[in-house]
Structures are given as C-alpha cells and as structure tokens.
Amino acid sequence: MSACIFEVRHTPIRDELWVKLPNQDATYIPALWLRTRSEAPEERDLGTRQRLINPHKLATDIEVTQALITGDALQLQFSDGLSNSLSLARLLRDLKLDDECPHTIAWRTADWQIPAFTKGQRPLPRYDWRTLIQDDYFLNALTDFIQYGFLLLHDTPTEPNSLLTIARRFGYLRETNFGLLFDVRSIPPSEQTDFSDDLAYRAIGLDPHTDNPYRTPVPGIQLLHCLENQTEGGYSTLVDSLAVCATLKAEDPTGYALLTTTPLRFEYRSSQAQLVNVCPVIEQDGRGQMIGVHFSPRLCDLPLLDEPSTRQLQAALARLSSLFSDPSYELHFKLMPGELIMFDNNRVLHGRTAFDPTQGNRHLQGCYIDRDTPRSHYRRLSQQLNRTL
Amino acid sequence: MSACIFEVRHTPIRDELWVKLPNQDATYIPALWLRTRSEAPEERDLGTRQRLINPHKLATDIEVTQALITGDALQLQFSDGLSNSLSLARLLRDLKLDDECPHTIAWRTADWQIPAFTKGQRPLPRYDWRTLIQDDYFLNALTDFIQYGFLLLHDTPTEPNSLLTIARRFGYLRETNFGLLFDVRSIPPSEQTDFSDDLAYRAIGLDPHTDNPYRTPVPGIQLLHCLENQTEGGYSTLVDSLAVCATLKAEDPTGYALLTTTPLRFEYRSSQAQLVNVCPVIEQDGRGQMIGVHFSPRLCDLPLLDEPSTRQLQAALARLSSLFSDPSYELHFKLMPGELIMFDNNRVLHGRTAFDPTQGNRHLQGCYIDRDTPRSHYRRLSQQLNRTL
Predict the structure, then answer these.
(1) What SS3 string covers A345-358?
(2) Do A197 and B100 touch (CB under 8 A)?
(3) Of A52, B20, B259, B322, which residue is most buried, by most CB within 10 angstroms?
(4) Per residue in A87-112, pLDDT tens?
C-alpha cells in the first residue's frame, strides 16, 4: 500500500521523495527530514530507537542523490555519503507528528445514559476494577479516559488506602500539599470531636472547580475513591471544560480570547506552603490547542486592567462560571462505596452537591497521578494488541 | 506612605480610587477590582484568605458609592450594598500581579568565579547542607536557585539514598519512568559483570540536554548527588537556556520565533513506557515569557514542513545546539563526593564530559522534585523573616 502513496522523482540535480495522501496534493518530503530518520546502526540504537548522533548538526542543504523503492523499503543515498534503508510504513506513520492517542471528544450531560436523569447515546465509561487486569479491557478504559477525560471504576476494595494500589495501575503518584493521599470525610455532628476549617469537611456543596490551580504544574489526574456514603445527597459532579469553552467561544469569541491570554492569580496560603500561579483561565498546549482550565473562584484574583477590560473579563468569567454549573454540562451521579472516579484535572472540573451530615458517614479518599502516564499505557497496549486508531 | 499614592476622587455619579505610582500616570482602579478583594468575614475566610463567595458572579457594572481614606485603611461603600475596609498596603502590593519571587538572572560562564577557569563577579551559588537548617541561610539558597536556576550543596552525607532526605527539604519528590531515585554509576571495565544499554552507564560525554522532554509535564527540578568519583574527567556541565536563547533571539529573531511555535516530537520507548510529547523547543509560560527549553537531540524528531521551512528550522536548531556547547555558556565543574547540584530542568541544561572508567568508580544518584516547591518555601520564609524583594 505504502509504495503506491510514495513516489520517487528523478531530477537532474537530485532524487526526490513525494507522497500523495488521499484528498491532498502531492507533497515533497525534504531530504533533511529523511536524513534525520536514519536507521543506520552507527546513528541509532535500534533497541531503544534513541539516536546516537545529534541531528541538529546535519547540514541544512543535504540532498538525496539516489532513491529507490523496493517493496516496503526506501533505499536512500545522501549527499553526505550515508546510505540507508527506511521502512515506508514507518515513514507513513511518521508524516503526521501526533502523540498517537485518541482525540478528545467533548461531552454534555445529554450525551450520557444515566437512569432517571438523561437518556443519551453512551453508557458512562464505567469499568470493573477486577477485570482491569486484562489488557484489552484496560485498553478500552484508557481509550475512554483519553477521549472523555474521566472514568468510573466499580468493585474496588473499600479498605482505606487501597486507592494507592489502584492509582499506581494508571500512573506515578504525585504528592502535593495535601499529602500522597487525602481524606474527604464527613461524620454526623453528634460524633464530631473537633471542627475542621477545610470546606471539604463540611456538608456544603462545592461548585465545579479544578484542583490546585495555584500549582505549576497542576496535578494532572485526580482519583476520588468512595469508601463509605450513608447520606442521600453528596452527588459527585463533573463538567467537561472543552464542551463549555466551545460554547463560550461560539457565543463570545472576544471573551474566550481574553480568557486564553489574560493572566489571573491563583493562590494557596498556609503556614506550610505559599503557592502562587499567575496564568490565564483557559490553558492551551504548545500547539495552541485548548487542554483545559484553571478554575477555582475561591482562590482567584483579577489583574489590574482598565475599566472596560475589567468588565469584559468579568463578563467572560461570569458566563464561564454559569455554564460550568449549567445542568446541560454538569453531570451528577452518586458515588457508592467501592466506586471511584478518575478525571483529567486540567480538563474536567469536579464538585459535589450538598448533603445532610446527620444521615451518617461519608468518606472519600483522593490522590493525584501524572497527566501523561495513562497515555503511555495506551500507546504501549495498543501496539501490543495491534490496535490502531 | 500608601496614603500619598492613593487618592479618592469624588464625581457626581461615583467615588473613584486612583493610584499614582512613581514615573507613571495616575491610574483608575476599577470598582470591580476592589469589590472582589472584599475582606468581609462573610465573603472571605481570614485564616486561609480563601473566598467564601464566587467573585465571578458579581455585577460587572458595580460602583463605589462612597470612599474614604483613613490612615492605612480604605473605607468603601459599594453600589450592591457591601461596606468594607481594605488595607492600602495590601492593595499596593496587589497592584502588581506577580508570583512574589525574585526575577531570573541569565548567566554565562564568565559571570562565575571558578578557580583555574573563569574569574567572574559572582561566587558559585554553593551552600553547606549542614547549615541549611537555618531559615535565613536556606532563604539565601532559595533566592540564588530562583535567580540562577541552579544550586550546589556541599558536605552532604554520602550514604546511598540520602538524596531522598535532601530533596524533600526542597519539595515533593516526583517519581518517573526511572523510579523515585536513579543511579548513574560507572565501574572499571575489569569489575563489570554485565553490560548496560543506558548511555549514562558508559564513560562517554553527554552533551547538554534537558531530562524527560517527552513527559507532559517534564520533571521540574533535578538533583544529582555525587557519592563517589575516582576518575579525573567526568566534569558536570550546566548551561542557562535563558542566556543562550537571548543570544539566539538577538542574532536571528525569525529562528527564535520558529522555535517557540513549531512543535517537534520527543519520545521515549521501552517495554514499560511509551512516552511522547509534541511541543516547541522553546517553552513559554501563560504570560508569553520564556521559561526554558525541551532539548535532547537523541530523542527529538522534525515535523514535516516544506523545504525552506525545514531548512530554516534546522538552522535555528543547529545554532541553538552549538551555543549550548559553547564554552562561553557551558559551565564545567567537578562534582566531588558529598557534593550535589540541583537545577531547574526546564531552564538549565546539564551534561557531563567524558572520563576514563579504568581510573576507578564514579557513582551519582539523581531524583526529581516539583518545579514550584522551592518558590513556595521562598515566599513562606521571606514573609516570616520579613524580607522583601
């Protein structure tokens, strides 16, 4: 197949490799691009695939003096003397410089099938912890997580701290100012022996927010594990910032742009830590693509701007805040003992509804893992199981 | 002092707070900016300073109906009914939305006093581990680290794994695909029992690079601890990417801009991890300020661009690579047993010169910590010790 897509053109001064992809014009592949991909054993360790030379030192005006396609192999002779054979299948994969993971799929409440709430097209991405040991099942879970930014696990052990074992299945634990693992616990007032200042320990609702927006970098993925829940309220909430921000961008492109460029200050102050991060609310990656938000109204300060800009920024923040709490976007479900949610803390906001602490105990444990490790597992398993996108 | 800088202007429709900073025009401070900074106990928990309300819900057209300065206090009456008193000193500090840390100072080799090498103005930022227990000494070390992006410690214990204790003094440990702690060890060939594939285990030199550019996010700060060094070569090297990129930007603004916007692919492949990051070489923060580079020629692939763009990108990479290894920028020093370097892995590249493994053992241990924790310690201590920038 590859051979039909690639074509060698002989010119008086050089040979050229061209590629013709469906619905695209034929594209010339620069000799330098090919030269840096050398598989010569003196230039690349074929076990690790790491280069043994510094490709930035190759001459910019390097040329292919001779090219020949034989089956899947491309035989190349370069003007600097190197002869090399490259796999066309590998070159084809390499034309697109992506991170080899599924694309994100923005979602709203109505997309999901939740009994008594909504009747969307998709069941929630809900997986059995006991089956996650199977590679193909694990790969399905990872695919959903990368696409939707969250995942539910059920039938996990409910012993305290078992979350650490579960989290390590997905990635490296990330310690924060809350420790390696933190407790979100509410006990009936009659049994309380002390009063905690932490909002999470009270029975009030928590609006959608991202955790630790005052960190650089923020913790990438959060896991929240339900050990006990005897109350009737206390629903968990999740909101996809990709869906919300797409709406904001369509409604108010100027407001959206302001939120991608205007730095706000996020801060956390305690006797142990003084954490400050100055950054825009909407976060973009190195390619200018939106990856998520820093959003926690409690912890966030406006910069000093002129009055019209201040009001414009505030209007965008108000709309964003209101969309995050809009039932069309804010997904509600009840986490039962043995259930766990894992979500991309950059992309998916979380919160909870109020509950009545006199009804009984409510105990969750939480922790963070690095953002890129589920993607690493995805790549590894999709190669092993020979699944392609 | 604050009172002279601030001024209340009464207009027929509202009171206005203005500030006049040295060498600047008087600036109006929007009512909304003041309103979100309310210190009212029903709106802010004064212990944690966290807000109890969502400030994004405040009306954009809020006004100050009455303002009065009394000493350091600003008494405010807002159009939504709130009366509040704010500290002018706090408002003054708050006008500038920064992260309350020292600014970076770019450096070259010639800036440092290194016996037998260079005779610059500054001694290396070198601190005694045993004295680091003292807050003011620790604060000096943190200040140097934030300004220069690196630090040396001496008189540390040389027992294996003591690095973990040292690292925890500065921040939370960050586990990676190399474990919580990794060994860089070379033993004389005659004593070798197996052959390792890892370049770090060989005696060859390593050009300046940043670690794990294929991670998202990359490990923020690296610590390298020397336990044993019986060889004569094996000098450690450090390069400040801020200094190098400033030179590149002055020489070739187009090339510099290309490196801030063109995504390259960085990758690490093993049976355990498949880590891929697609991002530009020069990394900027949310405010468009350069924070460092992703740079590791062994692990980096060019994107497919047209031929002129490919050559332009390659020329910029070649120049960058050559500047990183230029003796004017690449600092060399020998790490002796009990010494340790800690450096900002985003900003400061590291490497080592070749050595002769037949001369004896060379054993370093390394680990990573989060990027923002030394800054947190800096803020905490500078407040405690009442030091200001």
Answers:
(1) CCCEEEEECCCCHH
(2) no
(3) B259
(4) 999 999 899 888 899 999 999 999 99
